[in-house]
Amino acid sequence: MSKSWVSLWGSEQVCVHDDYQKTADWLLSQTKHRPQVAIICGSGLGMLADALKCQDAFHYTDIPGFPQSTVQGHAGRLVFGELKGKTCVCMQGRFHMYEGHSLCKTTFPVRVFKLLGVETLIVTNAAGSLADGLKPGDIMIIKDHVNFPGLGGFNPLNGPNDDKFGPRFPAMSACYNPGLRCLAMDIAKQQGVAELVQEGVYAAVGGPNFETIAEAKLMHRLGVDAVGMSTAPEVVVAVHCGLRVFGISLITNKVVKSYEDRECVNHEGVLEVSKLRSHTLQQLVSELVSRMDVNNNTAV
Ligand SMILES: O=P(O)(O)O[C@H]1O[C@H](CO)[C@@H](O)[C@H]1O
Ligand SMILES: Nc1nc2[nH]cnc2c(=O)[nH]1
Question: Which residues carry a binding-site annotation for phosphate?
Answer without folding.
Answer: 43, 74, 94-96, 126, 230
